[in-house]
Write a structure and sequence with these properties.
Elements lengths: L2 H21 L5 H8 L3 H7 L3 H26 L2 H18 L3 H7 L16 H18 L9 H15 L5 H13 L10
Helix pairs in contact: 1-2, 1-4, 4-5, 4-7, 5-7, 5-8, 5-9, 8-9
Length: 191
Amino acid sequence: MRADARRNRGRILAAAEAAIARDGVDASLEEIARQAGVGSATLHRHFPSRQSLLESVFRGRVETLCAKAGDFAAEFDPATALFTWLRAVGTHAAANRGLAPSLMRGARDGNGAGDPTLGTTCHTMIINAGGMLLDEAVRTHAVRSGIVITDLLKLVGAISLAAELEPDGATQADRLITLAFDGVRATRPSP
């Protein structure tokens, strides 16, 4: 990539970060291009779709969240690792306006198929990281069987979406996620 193209890409990403922080994931692409000092065509050459721009903006953050899955798996028992990671995902989503529904949509087209031009999406990365934790929690009977990671992520996404506009959205999301996951744990016999 030429130096000027790298600079343009960097300016577009910086403008997109600011616009998304201010206006959410539906921020105007034209405004992002204007703030970056590039034309709409330049923005679209770098990012052919809104989803590809969002993925680039959020990819680093999602990579960090996914790395935490491995850290938590090494540090905690399987149920604690899963729930701690899902709480981190929920807290992060509530603090980043529009991230939860955007990531749950993933790179989907009108037919529900993934967009192959996007490569490994944030959505897929999160499913893989969470799936690893869930599989281990189910294997050790720490959570009920029959649960799939996409259901848990939808639950986290719904809670995060409900909490994201609250003044203390991240705190509320964490509290509600903790409450919801009490129902996911494997039942223990009464004493």
